[in-house]
Amino acid sequence: VPFGTAVPEEDLAEARALRSSLGDAAGKIPATAIKGGFGNCGAGGGVLDIVAATLSLHHQVLPPTVNTGRVDPECGLNLVTGSARPGDYK
Known about the structure:
38% of the residues lie in helices and 9% in strands. It has 90 residues and is mainly alpha-helical. The chain has a two-stranded parallel ribbon with strand order 1-3. A two-stranded antiparallel sheet has the order 2-4. It is globular and about 30 Å long.
């Protein structure tokens, strides 16, 4: 789950780090960020990430990265935008 601060330089640096870690899979694995829906909750953000990930696995659906109008082509990630994405997530 990306941090998704909507600060272009930070988001691009994070996308590059994920691509470096995941290689070609980074463009195939769906990714989402919940921060756009909750805001920056500081230390509580980790708990929200765990809850969102647990519910996503339980319901087999990923929430969209809300408030995302355009994804930078340099991102290279498979971001879930627009609406939730059902799937077979394990």
